[in-house]
Amino acid sequence: MRIAFFVNAIEGESPLFTTSLLAAAALSRDHEVIYVTPDDFTLRPDGALVVHAKVLPSKKFKKPETFHAALQDESLQRRTIEIGEIDALLLRNDPSLDLAARPWAAHAGILFGRFAAQRGVVVLNDPEALALAQNKLYFESFPDVVRPPALISRNIDEIRHFVESHPKGAILKPLQGSGRRNVFKVNSASKSNLNKVFEAVGVDGYIVAQPYLPEAKAGGIRLFLLNGQPLKHGDTYAALRRMPARGDQQSNICAIGAAAPARITDDILALAERVRPKLVADGVFLVGLDIVGDKLLEVNVFSPGGLWNMRELYGVDFSNPIIRAVENKVAAQAVSKEGIDNRMLATL
Q1: Which of 53, 193, 230, 285 counts the highest number of beta carbons within 10 A?
Q2: CATH of 2-124+323-343, one of 3.40.50.720, 3.40.50.1860, 3.30.70.3340, 3.40.50.20
Q3: CA-CA distance, 224 to 186, in Å (whole number)?
Q4: Can you give the pLDDT of all 348 residues of the chain as single tens digits?
Q5: pTM, to two decimals
């Protein structure tokens, strides 16, 4: 089986990225692995779609650093491959990383992923689902009961009123974006304070305001869902608690937080069950749910990370069951006489 991993840029990949672990797991299961970036698609006049892909050597890598060194090798073979010769395309880019410097690249995966799916390639997550989730408005389509109330606006008077109505504080963040860039906790709606935050966050467009949840001091939980169900191995869930640094309300591990084991309660599983129908209907194969207290704060559908932290915390590698699920989808597509709709196949 040939699996393609679509990323923002190969030089931007890290040994401990979830994408790297998935690619190494695919190689260990004797699949061919190729990497594709926004620069690598060509749609020819005859309608043929090809990729100019970087092909990984067919070998098993015991250490993530060794795999990463092979990926970064400038002498690594590049091949032009017709899209129909790819069995599965995993869209693992983060559009927000490209929006400022090269906006044309931000949605290349979605656009060409649609063409790939039309040609029988299994594309995960489904491109139409990713198109829906290009910004945090997607989050507002989930049931009210699972998420905190939010205001989305560029009107500073509306935002000031929202902050004033939440005495425990509010979180302001850009509607478009990921990570902790331009995310602020605001305790006061004083003119000078709010004006500065409004200016910083508003440079990215619309602003999302949410009430600050005091439970965030204890960290938030990221729980992975696969095919709409919590991913687990035995009794161990693919989940972690992301602990904020002292004096900081953020818990983004890549920025400042630390990973700790997470206890998955019945309430958390019930929350996951409430969002499952929409995720399945949208064709979301792999997703990371960020949960604080009894509320969902983020739905990460583009490139959810954390598998390496879970491997370190629990001694469990969740990469293999994810690749097995991809194998099952490719097999189902292969035996279907008329082909299965990609959105349905994504969570089959």
Answers
A1: 285
A2: 3.40.50.20
A3: 30
A4: 999 999 999 999 999 999 999 999 999 999 999 999 999 999 999 999 999 999 999 999 999 999 999 999 999 989 999 999 999 999 999 998 898 899 999 999 999 999 999 999 999 999 999 999 988 889 899 999 999 999 999 999 999 999 999 988 899 999 886 555 678 888 876 666 788 889 889 888 899 999 999 888 888 999 999 999 999 999 999 999 988 766 555 434 344 568 999 999 999 999 999 999 999 999 999 999 999 988 998 899 999 999 999 999 999 999 999 999 999 999 999 998 788 999 999 999
A5: 0.91
Which numeric CATH code is attached to 215-317?
3.30.470.20
Q: Taking a C-beta distance cutoff of 8 angstroms, is the pair 309, 223 a contact?
A: no
Residue where the block lists tokens 């693919």: 238
Which one-letter DSSP state was computed for residue 245?
Answer: P
Domain boundaries, the chain: 2-124+323-343, 149-212, 215-317
Residue positions counted in the chain: 348
DSSP string covering 36-73, please?
A: E-TT-EEE-TTS-EEEEEEEPPSS--SSHHHHHHHHH-
| Structure tokens that stand for 69 in this block | 């060194």
